[in-house]
Design goal:
Helix content is 25%, strand content 30%. With 470 residues, it is an alpha/beta fold. Strand 11 and strand 12 form a beta hairpin. It has an 8-stranded mixed sheet, sandwiched between helices. It has a 7-stranded mixed sheet with strand order 10-9-8-11-12-13-14. Helix 1 runs parallel beside helix 11.
Length: 470
């Protein structure tokens, strides 16, 4: 019989830093690092470990002796359990400080490159209600609070519509109010849940793979349009019609009401058919003088105001004179390509999601841009010398990959193509740093600029300008 390892406890430990994944950092008496949830640098706390590794511990706060001067009172009633806004208890200026520090640390430690002094991080005017897209999950197995468990009462109310509990794929925290998206987001979510409970429409059971209601997506554009998408697990026509009819009648401001029938084990929608129940199959976002058609599968930056600043900074870094050829990799619906097109000779976008490419083409026509082209392909398959011979040697390559960064084949192809400049945009400075290390043999980082797209979280967007070495 194995013995249970005793959990270590530490007393009156000062929290000294904030690090990766939104966790705060302290040092144990034995010199090991302690990663802590829900603490703020400057706190003095007692801790109990729940995980021990060779070089670090993970611990929870059991008692607070002294609170940091950088602490805020969280506005959200769900802060203690929701994994979304992990830094809501930290002063916003300090959030910005630690975001920029984390980016610089990753570029230097992982990238092992010389980094110039970063430009000051661009803060967000909106601290809450800044997201244009939210996704909520239905579950018949909601997260139970400690007082509910201790009561030992039979709890019949187990339905939830909200967010996954961190590290618990099977548990959903029921959300009363989310401060990340403006109304009518909360009203739609709460009203739909109430209606579904009253009508006994089964919420999804992820373990048993049964139920009807599975997922809810709400997109609100800066032009005032509203898209609502409901994902159902099976084609139960009576329940589906009841849900959609309720939403249409209760919220006449919905301009695009759509649904999905998804019997798969995962709830990703990119391989699913999207069915329009009423209204249009898209909404329109505006950025400066440009308009972008966004559909259910489109990637679009979730903070519209900060996205505009991101693209303005990209245009500034590009410093185009009007005679350049630009490649825009991972181009999505063509937002960056079209934003910079007025200053370039030709912009070529490459994107793997077919629907996004088709929208990019439509958007270019809508915006009366004739010097942009978009291609649907895996970048590592299409970006070769033949492609360059056909479309021209790029003076600048802009790359904005997903969180896992660029495939190494893409990095190697960029090095072979040998543009004069590269602009690398990333929402994950760790993978960005990894790729910059590979580019370092030919390119020098000359500018780096962080932009806070996600207030109250540890996430941050970062732009790097690379110039060819002499």
């Amino acid at each position: 019989m194995s013995k249970t390892k005793k959990k270590k406890e530490f007393y009156k430990i000062k929290v000294i830093d904030a690090g990766a994944k939104g966790k705060s950092i302290a040092k144990a008496p034995d010199g090991k690092i302690i990663f802590i949830e829900k603490a703020v640098p400057g706190d003095v706390v007692d801790l109990k470990t729940f995980k021990k590794r060779k070089n670090y511990y993970e611990a929870r706060v059991t008692k607070k002796h002294r609170l940091s001067p950088f602490r805020n009172k969280p506005m959200c009633v769900h802060f203690d359990y929701c994994g979304g806004c992990k830094w809501q208890h930290m002063d916003y200026k300090k959030q910005l400080f630690y975001k920029q520090k984390e980016v610089l640390n990753n570029l230097q430690r992982i990238g092992k490159i010389d980094v110039p002094k970063p430009l000051p991080i661009i803060k967000s005017k909106k601290k809450f209600f800044y997201r244009n897209k939210m996704e909520f999950t239905f579950s018949n197995n909601r997260w139970l609070f400690e007082n509910e468990i201790k009561s030992k009462k039979i709890i019949d109310d187990r339905n939830a519509l909200g967010f996954h509990i961190p590290d618990r794929w099977d548990k959903i925290l029921d959300i009363e109010e989310c401060l990340l998206q403006e109304d009518p987001s909360n009203k739609i979510r709460n009203s739909l849940k109430t209606f579904a409970v009253e009508k006994n429409i089964p919420f999804f059971d992820i373990k048993e793979q049964k139920g009807i209601l599975r997922n809810l997506i709400i997109r609100i554009s800066n032009t005032g349009e509203l898209m609502v998408i409901v994902q159902f697990f099976k084609d139960s026509k009576e329940e589906i019609n009841a849900v959609l009819k309720f939403l249409k009648n209760s919220f006449p401001k919905i301009t695009s009401l759509q649904y999905i029938i998804n019997p798969k084990k995962n709830d990703t929608i990119y391989d699913q058919d999207i069915i329009v129940y009423s209204g249009k199959d898209h909404i329109i976002e505006r950025m400066g003088k440009l308009f972008f058609k966004i559909n259910a599968k489109s990637f679009y930056q979730t903070n519209s105001e900060q996205a505009h600043k991101l693209y303005q900074k990209t245009l500034e870094f590009a410093n185009l004179k009007g005679n350049e050829i630009v490649y825009d990799l991972y181009s999505g619906t063509g937002t960056i390509a079209q934003f910079i097109a007025k200053n370039a000779k030709l912009v070529i976008g490459v994107e793997i999601i077919f629907e996004s490419v088709e929208l990019a083409k439509e958007n270019a026509v809508k915006n009366k841009l004739t010097n942009v082209k978009f291609f649907h392909a895996k970048i590592k398959n299409i970006l070769n010398q033949e492609f360059v011979r056909t479309h021209g040697q790029p003076n600048l390559i802009i790359t904005d990959p997903p969180r896992n960064g660029m495939h190494q084949d893409v990095v190697n192809q960029i090095l072979k193509i040998n543009p004069e400049k590269i602009i690398y945009i990333s929402c994950n400075s760790a993978t960005q740093a990894r790729d910059l290390n590979l580019l370092d043999k030919k390119y020098l980082v000359t500018k780096t600029q962080s932009i806070d797209m996600f207030p109250q979280t540890h996430h941050v967007e970062n732009i790097v300008l690379l110039n060819k070495r002499n």
